Amino acid sequence: MLFRRQTINKKSAIRGVIILGSLFVVLTLGLVGTSAFAVYKDAKSYQRSIKAGNPINVVDAKANSLAGSTKTLINNLNLPWVAPFTKLAGVNFSSIQPEITAAIKASPYLLGADKPRSFLIAFQNSAEARGTGGILGAFAIVKFDKGAMTVVK
Question: In a 3-state reduction of DSSP, which class is residue 139?
Answer without folding.
Answer: strand
